[in-house]
Specification:
single chain, transmembrane helix, Chromate transporter, Chromate_transpt, membrane
């Protein structure tokens, strides 16, 4: 077979599949042999196929900055779907099969998966230096915007009625982005790569992982467990698979009886009792090292250290920072920039606030850069490892369950508002905020319809801008009337 890595950018990967099919002029016996070997070769080719263009570093930076960094709205789920749609589906740098395997492997790495995927594709295009450039290009817009948002928040806060009105309209729009992205990612995550059909066992893995998430069962236990269970299922070892499936709930029941329902407070290490620069860096470094599966696992750790243990960040401010990070075009772990800014401001005023934002961000992203860039070759070997193939397929199916739960949680908070809204004083203001739920639900429905109707990346920018303006008309009267 001809070397595929030198094919022009955008060439349809179907040519690769066609080249492995038996010729019609051959005998039936020869065709049968070719068919059996062709299927094996096609699977290998799909995991090694690379059509990544060799871009100079400046063009590579601009490619990821313009295509993904500026348009990374909607959180990690939407970002991953956007990267997959642009690079894999449209430009065909790699096959969908290889993307799913890479995505599954990166679930075991600390850090935001969207940034790691950009680094992976940067490495394919221009080596390890290209991976660093691609990662920085993806992160930079969100970091700058969060830095600005942190400063503005210090001056006004979310209690500013104009800011709050626009923010209230943007929340259901972001939720709609996440819902659409969940659908896009699930499209290929529950597909058996051999039969190209929906695998019911992967659907079960997604559903059970979603149930485990609501039970507060550690996400890493669920992902690893369903990866192993699917390895047994793929090899038709039904009894070990069934035993492991039952043991997870027996173990959870025993833990809940003797220790109580798992709580995020148990994650506290007490490493940031004061928000000094060194403590902020260590907080970011440890949180980044623990952020397997993305920001959603880093959030409770930072909350425990800064809010509960350290006590230097109010719970209300922490909730606000998570909300802001959800509406910015950035990896969700960029919430750490806000935490560092507020910590630095508490410790030494505005002059230290910007330094705090920078050091905690460096700490948060250092692990993912280290593992993704330095370990690129090893990760590629894991992607192509046949023994672990079914493990990663099962893991990728389980991830959909986690993403689905997160999507519903964000939808609930974006439409209903936070608990703080219902404790607002006077009572009339709390009632007014509760009444906004119907408007938020309508915004969510309209935004979801627009996202499915218009797939151009500029549609997201227009939608966000329209939502910010509409919020001034839809929510400002209720907020300013009391």
């Amino acid at each position: 077979m001809a070397q595929t890595s030198s094919t022009p950018n955008g060439q349809d990967v179907e040519a690769l599949h066609q080249s492995t099919q038996p010729h019609s002029t051959e005998t039936k016996e020869a065709s049968d042999v070719d068919i059996s070997t062709s299927s094996h070769n096609t699977d290998d080719d799909e995991l090694t196929y690379s059509n990544a263009p060799k871009l100079p570093l400046f063009r590579l930076f601009w490619y990821f900055f313009y295509n993904f960094g500026l348009f990374a709205w909607g959180g990690p789920v939407a970002q991953i779907a956007m990267i997959k749609e642009q690079i894999v589906t449209k430009e065909k740098w790699i096959t969908h099969a290889r993307f799913q395997r890479v995505f599954a492997v990166y679930q075991i790495l600390p850090g935001p998966e969207a940034a790691e995927l950009c680094m992976f594709f940067g490495c394919l295009s221009a080596g390890r230096l290209g991976g660093i450039v691609a990662g920085l290009a993806f992160i930079l817009p969100g970091f700058v915007l969060m830095l600005v948002a942190s400063y503005l928040y210090t001056l006004a806060g979310l209690e500013n009625k104009y800011f709050n009105a626009s923010f209230r309209a943007l929340q259901p729009i972001v939720s709609a982005m996440i819902f659409k992205a969940t659908h896009k990612i699930a499209d290929h995550s529950i597909i058996d790569q051999k039969t190209k059909k929906v695998d019911p066992f992967l659907i079960i893995a997604a559903i059970c992982t979603a149930i485990n998430s609501t039970l507060r069962l550690n996400i890493f236990i669920s992902l690893g467990l369903y990866g192993i269970i699917y390895m047994f299922i793929a090899r038709r070892l039904w009894i070990p698979a069934g035993i492991l499936f039952i043991l997870q709930y027996v173990g959870y029941a025993l833990y809940a009886i003797f220790r109580g329902v798992p709580s995020p407070v148990s994650l506290a290490l007490g490493i940031a009792k004061t928000p000094s620069l060194i403590n902020l860096f260590v907080l970011g470094l440890v949180a980044g090292s623990l952020s397997f599966g993305g920001a959603y696992t880093a959030i409770p750790f930072v909350q425990v250290e800064a809010v509960l243990k350290g006590g230097w960040l109010p719970q209300r401010v922490f909730i606000d920072c998570i909300a802001i990070s959800n509406v910015l075009p950035a990896p969700l772990v960029i919430f750490a920039t806000f935490v560092g800014f507020q910590g630095g401001n508490t410790d030494g005023g505005l002059s230290k606030a910007f330094a705090g934002a920078v050091v905690i961000t460096l700490g948060m992203f250092f692990p993912c850069f280290l593992f993704t860039i330095a370990g690129h070759s090893l990760l590629e070997k894991l992607v192509h490892n046949k023994f672990l193939a079914s493990f990663f397929d099962g893991l990728c199916g389980a991830v959909i369950g986690v993403i689905a739960v997160i999507s519903f949680q964000i939808l609930k908070s974006s439409i209903q508002g936070t608990e703080r809204d219902f404790h607002a004083k006077p009572v009339e203001l709390a009632i007014a905020k509760a009444a906004q739920s119907g408007i938020a639900a309508v915004i969510f429905t309209i935004a979801l319809a627009v996202l499915y109707k218009f797939t151009n990346k500029w549609a997201v920018i227009v939608l966000v801008a329209t939502g910010a303006v509409a919020g001034q008309f839809l929510f400002l009267d209720e907020l300013s009337g009391h």
